[in-house]
Specification:
3 domains, globular, 2 strands, two-stranded antiparallel ribbon, Growth Hormone, Chain: A
Length: 524
């Protein structure tokens, strides 16, 4: 193969030339280049979670509105992932990666200087789109520069960036919020963008098609509308009613546009999503596992900071530090899991990791206001160790069963389905948390007129307050307020417990498609 590819008047640098220029270390240069940008981008998916209470207070947002800060990021990331193949053909790996870095920097600046919730959601949408474009680019770049017998290790490194970043992001974000304000969390990724830009200019290839392929705008619009409509219906169902015109209309629109998207991708000359990858049953099984992985990673990372700040009264810094041991454990497990994925069938390591993560969330379904910091941290560490075994094996197992010409499409598809799980998971768990909290509040509400239990509880509390020096009327009012707050707090705790339990059940169910991946591998 020629080292350089001529494209009109320009000369393009290929991967082979760069590998020859930099020698055996080239694969590590590419890995660092990719991970620098990915860590900054993906960390921003969860870094805002610890800032949620502050943002809600400043802009007067309810929880159903605030969760769009996470959902908008994940939804735009999901849609943008499918543009990666077209972007590489049009601009080359270097150009596409640099575009994603510049877009992310723009979104970060817009977020930092936002003065209302609409601007902030737009900023999160831009950040998510940039992160969505960068992820498949990074996976393909690393997969291609490592030899076949080391690709499990490569996916381990890639997975470390994809999973470690959301785990460690809240720690840095919490420190910035406590010492400055929530605006500063958006500045955190900018230095990484500068470094990534410089490294990409040196180490990523510039090869692109001589003629820019057409972009499937119609498919992209259909997908975007479908995602937005589905998530809008899901997030508003609890507030407006699941039988409301808006919610039912949103779900109908999502269904129609998704069916139209599938039809469009079947006939498009350059589809965003190559449906050929789904003719492979093992890839379909891997996609099911990836979807559930997305639900668990982003859903649990959304729930944990929210729980410890709203229920246990942690500061943002303490909330972030709670996830720090899990991030360290994850960083230690990934290299080992990557090596093991080169030696053992992927389904074995995925099965083991799924069980660990399910058990972790089952243990968290018993947390309460008095759960100790290190007990909670240990539960999270157990789950992150499980994720460390899942990610490299899943990526390696999904791509190795595809024909070479489908690898780039497979990388985009597996990332797409994982992020789709993340976007739906955050929305779903937010709704489930609110619903379960409301149900438990009704169940434990002893303040209804005519109940002897409520009257007795109020009399006991009022008597205790009266002995403490309060007058009769004041004591009665404070007793009512105290009992109401106590019941609301207990309902909130039970809602979180049920949400953690739901994640555990989902991961136990995911053992079925994981087991299906044990089918015989394709030759080679």
């Amino acid at each position: 193969m020629m080292d350089r590819v001529s494209n009109g008047a320009s000369t393009q640098v290929t991967t082979e030339e760069l590998a020859s220029r930099y020698g055996a270390a080239y694969k590590w240069y590419v890995s660092v280049t990719v991970l620098v940008g990915l860590i900054a981008m993906i960390a921003s998916a969860t870094i805002v979670n610890v800032a949620m209470p502050d943002i809600m207070g400043e802009f007067g947002m309810g929880q159903d509105q605030a969760q769009w800060l996470s959902t908008a990021f994940l939804a735009s990331m999901t849609a943008a992932m499918l543009t990666a193949t077209w972007a590489v053909k049009s601009f080359g790996s270097r150009g596409a990666y640099i575009i994603s870095l510049l877009a992310f920097a723009l979104g970060s600046l817009l977020g930092a200087f936002s003065t209302d919730d609409i601007a902030l959601i737009i900023a999160r949408t831009i950040q998510g789109a940039a992160a969505g474009l960068a992820q498949p680019l990074g996976m393909v770049a690393m997969f291609q520069v490592f030899p076949a017998n080391r690709r499990g290790s490569a996916m381990g490194l890639y997975g470390m960036g994809v999973i470690l970043a959301p785990a460690l992001g809240p720690t840095a974000g919490g420190m910035l919020i406590d010492n400055y304000s929530w605006h500063y969390v958006f500045f955190l990724g900018l230095p990484f963008c500068v470094v990534g830009f410089l490294l990409a200019s040196l180490f990523l290839p510039t090869v692109r098609d001589s003629k820019r392929p057409p972009f499937d705008w119609f498919g992209f619009i259909l997908l975007s509308v479908s995602l937005a409509a589905f998530l809008a219906g899901l997030s508003n169902g609890q507030r407006l009613g699941w039988d409301s015109t808006f919610v039912i209309g949103s779900f109908c629109l999502a269904t129609v546009t998704m069916c139209a998207f599938v039809a469009q991708e079947r006939r498009a000359a350059t589809p965003l999503l190559a449906l050929d990858v789904y003719y492979n049953s093992r890839f379909v099984a891997a996609s099911a596992v990836a979807f559930i992985l997305g639900v668990g990673v982003y859903g649990s990372t959304y729930l944990v900071p929210l729980f410890v700040q709203t229920v246990q009264g942690y500061t943002p810094t303490e909330s972030g530090l709670l996830l720090m041991p899990a991030g360290i454990a994850l960083g230690m497990v990934f290299p080992l899991a990557g090596r093991l994925s080169d030696r053992f069938p992927p389904y074995i390591l995925i099965f083991f990791g799924m069980i660990l993560f399910a058990v972790s969330n089952y243990l968290m379904s018993d947390v309460g206001t008095d759960t100790a910091f290190w007990t909670f941290a240990a539960y999270i560490v157990l789950g992150r160790i499980g994720l460390g075994f899942i990610m490299p094996s899943l990526n390696n197992g999904a791509l190795r069963v595809l024909d070479p010409y489908l690898i780039s499409h497979g990388a985009g598809a597996i990332n797409f389905i994982r992020q789709l799980g993340g976007a739906i998971g955050v929305d779903m768990l937010s709704v489930y948390l609110e619903r379960q909290t409301t149900l438990y509040a009704h169940e434990i509400n002893t303040m209804q007129p005519g109940t002897s239990t409520g009257v007795s509880a109020l009399h006991l509390i009022a008597a205790a307050l009266h002995r403490a020096g309060l007058t009769g009327a004041t004591a009665a009012g404070e007793a009512h307020r105290f009992l109401s707050n106590m019941m609301a707090a207990q309902a909130n705790v039970m809602g979180f417990r049920e949400s953690f339990l739901l994640v555990a059940v989902i991961f136990f169910v995911a053992l079925l498609p994981t087991w299906y991946m044990r089918a015989k591998r394709l030759p080679g």
